[in-house]
Write a structure and sequence with these properties.
Blueprint lengths: L7 H9 L3 H8 L3 H26 L4 H9 L2
Length: 71
């Protein structure tokens, strides 16, 4: 028995699924969702910044966590 067999019905369902960008564009049209999304931006900006700093320092996540624990 092949557990990974692709069925035609599965392909139809997958082709109907919107891309992430299409989904995001649609849900952000809701004012409440857009407001909540915008409120999270400072947190995500901080995460992006910390990831960039970690990458520049060539630290793995585990190394960074270990260094932070020592502080």
């Amino acid at each position: 028995m092949n557990c990974f067999k692709t069925y035609e019905s599965d392909l139809k369902i997958m082709s109907k699924r919107p891309s992430f960008d299409a989904f995001k564009k649609r849900v952000l049209q809701d004012a409440e969702v857009l407001e909540a999304y915008n409120q999270l931006e400072p947190e995500f900006a901080l995460l992006r910044q910390s990831i960039n700093v970690r990458k520049k320092a060539r630290f793995f996540k585990e190394q960074l966590a270990s260094a932070i624990k020592k502080i």
